[in-house]
Structure formats: C-alpha cells, structure tokens
Design a protein that fits this description.
This is LLM class flavin-dependent oxidoreductase. By secondary structure, this protein is an alpha/beta fold. It contains 12 helices and 13 strands. The chain has one domain: Alpha-Beta Barrel (TIM Barrel), CATH 3.20.20. Bound molecules: flavin mononucleotide.
Length: 362
Amino acid sequence: MTMTDKKLVLGMALIDGYGGLHGAWRAPHVDPGTYADVDATVRHAKAAERGRFTFLFTPDFPAVRGNVEHSTISNLMDPLIQLSAVARETTNIGFVVTGSTTFQESFNTARQFKALDVLSHGRMGWNAVTTSDPAVAANYGRPIADRNERYQRAHEAIQIVQALWGSWQEDAWVKDQAADRFIDPSKLQPINLQGQYVASRGPLAIPPSEQGQPVVFTSGGPSPHLLSIAGRYASGFIAEVWTIEEARAQRQLVRNAARRAGRDPDEIKYFPGVMTTVATVVGPGELHADHLQEWFEAGAADGFWVTPDIYEDGVDAFVDEVVPILQERGIYPTEYPGTTLRANLGVPYQYGLDPRSTSAEQ
Ligand SMILES: Cc1cc2nc3c(=O)[nH]c(=O)nc-3n(C[C@H](O)[C@H](O)[C@H](O)COP(=O)(O)O)c2cc1C
C-alpha cells in the first residue's frame, strides 16, 4: 500500500463525558450531570460516527482519584455497560474498551467483551493494560505486583482470553431444527489452559461475531515488557507522546516488536493522542488538519486518539471543521470501509489464539 492510498484512522477518547479541558464540566452550555447521562454519551458517539471515527476509546481506572471536590471523576461509570447502550444507537463506530489484565478475571473479560462484540455486530476492541494504579489495586483488595509478575500475568490473560474466544469454533453452531441438532459438540471444546497466574477450562458459550472476535489493543510506555505484549497480540497501540520524533521512534519500536513476533508490522496500528480545540479559541480547522497530516506523513502515526476540549460542542466542531479538510486532502475516508472494527482499522481477521503469538520468542 502506498502512502497516497493509506488513510488515517481516528478514535475518540471518552474520558469522562465532559471533555479533555480541565473544568469542562463547568462550561455554561454543559449539563453538569452528564456523568450519569447515557443519552449524552450516545449523542457524542453519533457525532463521532458522522465524522467517520473508527472507534471510541475508553480508558478505565475504576476508582475515585484526584480532587473530586472541584474536578470530575475522570472515568465512565462502567465503560462496557455504557457502550452496550451506545451500540444499539450506532451502526459503524467501534469501541476500544480498556480492561485490566492485572485485576479483572480473564474469564469475565473473555465473556463480556465477546458478548458485546456479537451484540454490536463486530465492533469491539479490548485495550489490555497492566494496571498499576494504587487506588484501583485497593478497590480489588490486592497489592500492586511487580512489573515482571504483571506482564507474565498479561501474557497468560491475553492468551487465555483469545483461546476462549476461539473455543466455540466458527462452524460449531448447526441450528438445524429439522435434524434436532443445535450445536456440534465436537466443535465446542475446553481449552484447558493453566498458567502461573491465570487458568481456565472453557469452552466459552459465545459464537463468533462478524469480525470473529474483539480486536486487541494495548497502551503504555514502550518498555521491553509492553513491546512483547504489543508485538505478539495487539492490532492497535494507544500511545502518549509529545513530539513527532518521539512518536516516530516509538512507532518503529512497536512495528519491530511485531516483526520479531513473526507478524507484518502493518498488522499493528499506532495512535498518538491529540487534544483538540477547534474554531472559539485555539485554532481553526486548517491548523488541526495540518498537524495530523504532518505526523501521519512523517510516519509518526497511523491515526490518532482525539480528545475534544468539550464534548458537547467540540465533537461537532471537529467533524464540521477538520474532517472535511482531511477528506479533501485525500488522507481520510469519506465513507466507512466496512461495518466491523477490523475492517475500519484495516487489520486482518483473527479467530482464537494466533499460533504465531505462542511460538515467538518472548
Ligand atoms: C496512553 C495510556 C493509556 C493508559 N490507559 C490505562 C487505563 O485506562 N487503565 C489502566 O489501568 N492503565 C492504563 N495505562 C497504564 C498502563 O497500562 C501501565 O500500567 C502503566 O503505563 C505503568 O507501566 P508498567 O506497567 O509498564 O510499569 C495507560 C497508559 C498509557 C500510556
């Protein structure tokens, strides 16, 4: 694929429902009760979908953190539950939901994410992170394990989750009323995986979705530990970087990690973050479009996770002022390439565990 026909991919971060701007919840045109209002989330999701955003991204730190007397609780109440409502009101936009490999039970992760993948017709992604936040650890009643343990657990968790996803084989569901045959039981078999920290028997009683199974993402700093996770399993990498040079170097590290795991580096898409303030104050659409294009064409990004300053009008402003410029320049799609998250990201189909991920050197 040449640079000219490659299109950039946008995700929108739904941090807390108010916006990336500190104090967004106090803006006069914002309902301060938005935190508990799923209709607001649906409105912002629909606006992003109008702008052909590929996915909504929800970080997750399930804890009360920071100065909540004056700032918001910077998290959704429960991303999966909130987005299952959004899935019913949208058709193409995907959902990249953060789920902790450290604290969440792998069987629950496998079950909940694949159920929402099926119910949303193939639009789910799992951002697998090795949470090390003390407030989150305290809520689960556990100490924070050291890095080696957290990452060993992450390898086991991702492999077990993907194996569970594949345990209902693609052609297992016979559904033949006349023959009195619901499932072919030889194609719905246990996985019997036992790791050092995580184990599961299976099978998982959920059929494939239109994209097979949820797309795995990861995020964090580019430590060798995280690169081993990214290189083997991830189709998307959510990054926090500040300069174009840093992003280009980090993207190369991520791509090399995929190569080392025996994959094509184009199978993993790299997303730096950007906070946008369009028109009122910081910059017109052109300025934002120039910034995104510069990073994209310098090989510093396959796309971006965008956090508008204030969701209530910032999503529409981005969609009306920035998106048309990117489209005119031919670097952003005018229509969704497909209806699944995989199709819109441009990453390959996968079902079950990728055999390359367990044969590669760690
Ligand atoms: C952009 C970005 C987003 C992250 N999102 C989350 C998150 O939503 N939830 C979480 O528990 N950790 C999140 N993390 C933290 C990482 O998963 C990881 O725990 C943290 O970077 C500590 O690094 P270490 O585990 O390699 O020591 C995020 C990190 C980055 C850089």
